[in-house]
UniProtKB/TrEMBL annotation:
Enzyme class: transferase
One Gene Ontology term from the biological process aspect of the record: UTP biosynthetic process
Organism of provenance: Leuconostoc kimchii (strain IMSNU 11154 / KCTC 2386 / IH25)
Matching PROSITE patterns: NDPK, NDPK_LIKE
Protein name: Nucleoside diphosphate kinase
Amino acid sequence: MTEKTLMLIKPDGVQRAKVGEIIQRIENKGYQIINMKMVTPTRALLDLHYAEHVDKPYYPALVDYMTSGPVVVMIGEGTNIVAGWRTLMGETNPTKAAPGTIRGDLGREWPQEAMMNVVHGSDSIVSAQREISLWFN
Ligand code: AMP
């Protein structure tokens, strides 16, 4: 089934100049990027995007991380892309993410409280629709 998902290259990915490599991995996989822009997210947008994290102890650090610079925001399209993009990203903690995945190859843990993990992907079709409308209203 053809799906859309929201893909972010987070501030650490942009600052460490991994944009080209990440886009190449998306394109090598065969997914289409059907919309793309660069923005520095606002706190208001992040409160909506991360609605299920706002009460977590690491949330203030997560906001500091995500507002520390521009992110690349993309809509990806392809068959089963929601699950496929999460497989390409690897698991949340970059120390545990398998080699071969974006987080496993390009990420590591740093001293900051918020886990800096290079990329984001929607976790379901419903989340993807919600996140795409938030970031591309
Ligand atoms: P997720 O929507 O699951 O990707 O989680 C949002 C983001 O919050 C993650 O990508 C991490 O950057 C951060 N995060 C999630 N869980 C933790 C945690 N236990 N400690 C610190 N940061 C976290």
